[in-house]
DNA sequence: GTGGGGATTCCCATGATGGGAAGGTCAAGC
DNA sequence: GCTTGACCTTCCCATCATGGGAATCCCCAC
């Protein structure tokens, strides 16, 4: 790859970047840019004669907006709503705030679930000798030995946490 | 094939439940039981002449073990290891503890990520008027206006939180 | 004109789960 | 006996956001 970079071709006015440059500039992978286009989150960009996608500064800004929203763990669906409001100068900040608040609530419940799990497991691990002997309160609990604790009521498809990213 | 043996080999010991009963008894959906079997997490149960799966009390106990582990957010992979240790009476509790501790660490980092997201978004929402006016610090931040905050380095496929469950 | 990097599309995989179709089985009621 | 409905079977599809990779084409610097 390497951005040996066009020495000067783009004087920042109507840049006209290809997908690789738009990706580097926005922090959204080319794969994801195409995906966002396919699901209608972003409009179809113009193309060169050869079929290469061409992105304007404006479109790259939108991609940056989307990336930051993803970094806050917002779902694609909500991001779509936010982008719509962002572009709508007649919007009400109340609508934006409501979306954010809903997400905060979901993050909160997700956090509580995870904390409950962590606390339960941490307590069990703490009481486990962790030596060569086979006796282990962790296994005993999983066997059904302990009282039911952690683990919320099985969350409904949960509030996507964020972007999975590289490793998989 | 059914127990070719004497007319009543199973008097109540060796219950012999079908998948629906095993599901009800263990709290694991029939769909998941079949899935666990397909990926080798549990062994293939015996079948009736008609092809119905037949589960013994022992197998149902294993399913319960798996469900509780899932409730603690453990991945199928780790659960497989735990089941193996559980059945291995020569195990070292250290191995069990290590698995639990690794999971606690993953839960912890996940929690920190979510908290960072929540805090950022909560602060932004708080500073948003939430009225009819269009000005909104949330959108301003997403536009790239604010300093980079929350959102960890894009988690690597994260430590599955728990079981999605019913609603979806 | 050639080579290498980048673009294109298309398909597949992930993790853990559910939904549903098409067809076979069992048990209870008439 | 026969019907009915609940249950089982397998198989495929969808989720959510993302990456991997193949096959093919394009662009630009040499």
Describe this structure in words.
- 2 copies of one chain form a homodimer.
- Chain A has 168 residues and is mainly α.
- Chain A folds into 2 domains: 19-87, Multidrug-efflux Transporter Regulator, Chain: A, Domain 2 (Orthogonal Bundle), CATH 1.10.1660; 93-142.
- Chain A has 6 helices and 2 strands, in the order ααββαααα.
- Chain A has helices spanning 19-26, 30-38, 57-71, 76-87, 93-126, 137-142; strands at 46-47, 53-54.
- The first copy, chain A, has a two-stranded antiparallel sheet.
- In chain A, α1 crosses α3.
- The interface between A and B is large, with 70 and 70 residues.
- The first copy, chain A, binds a DNA duplex (30 and 30 nucleotides) through residues 1-2, 18-20, 29-32, 34-35, 48, 50-53, 70, 75-76, 157, 160, 163-166, 168.
């Amino acid at each position: 790859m390497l951005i040996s970079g066009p020495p000067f071709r783009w004087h920042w006015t109507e840049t006209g970047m290809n997908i690789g440059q738009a990706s580097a500039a926005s922090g959204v992978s080319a794969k994801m840019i195409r995906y966002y286009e396919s699901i209608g989150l972003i409009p179809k960009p113009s193309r060169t004669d050869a079929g290469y996608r061409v992105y304007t500064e404006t479109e790259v800004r939108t991609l940056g907006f989307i990336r930051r929203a993803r970094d806050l763990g917002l779902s694609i669906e909500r991001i779509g709503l936010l982008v719509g409001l962002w572009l709508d100068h007649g919007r009400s900040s109340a609508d934006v705030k409501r979306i954010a608040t809903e997400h905060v609530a979901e993050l909160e419940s997700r956090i509580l679930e995870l904390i409950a799990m962590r606390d339960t497991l941490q307590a069990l691990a703490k009481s486990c000798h962790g030596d060569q002997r086979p006796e282990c309160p962790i296994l005993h609990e999983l066997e059904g030995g302990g009282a039911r604790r952690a683990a919320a009521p099985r969350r409904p498809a949960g509030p996507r946490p964020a972007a999975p990213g590289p490793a998989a």
